[in-house]
Prior knowledge:
single chain; Aminopeptidase
Amino acid sequence: xxxxxxxxxxxxRGSQRHAVRIRLAEASDLAFLAGNHRAMAWETxxxxxxxxxxxxxxxxxxxxxxxxxxxxxxxxGRPAGQLLVxxxxxxxxxxxxxxxQSVFVRPAFRRAGVYRxxxxxxxxxxxxxxxxxxxxxxxxxxxxxxxxxxxxxxxTRTGYVVYEQLVRGVGRRRGRGARG
Length: 180
């Protein structure tokens, strides 16, 4: 599953065209993906994630498709961004919702349409998967830029609030549970 298109960078970065290629992640992407998870947690929540735990969690998805799949966006042959898709069964709709998670575009590649291309690829894959009823994601309540991006791509805010209760100690700090 690879798709390629061209996007223009913002005027401040020149008017040259850049090829974006979306592909399924491979085992060789482990360091890129895990590094981005840690960068995203720091950037959005000022949280330091344990590198070993993040690598194990990322590797688990890469080696077990039942857990989900990663898409990677390559810009001019260099990995630029990623997202993870997991699934949730809906008995109300007799089908799956795909959850878009772990979205991250490296700062040097932002505003170049990388996430838009990742989102479009997930949308196409979902449209061709008969059991998929829709796409969902959650965003940090303080990440207004991400929220605007998702809304521009046709996603709507739901009436749901996310709660969690951790049952294992990994990621806990000062009595608060860790997201992710």
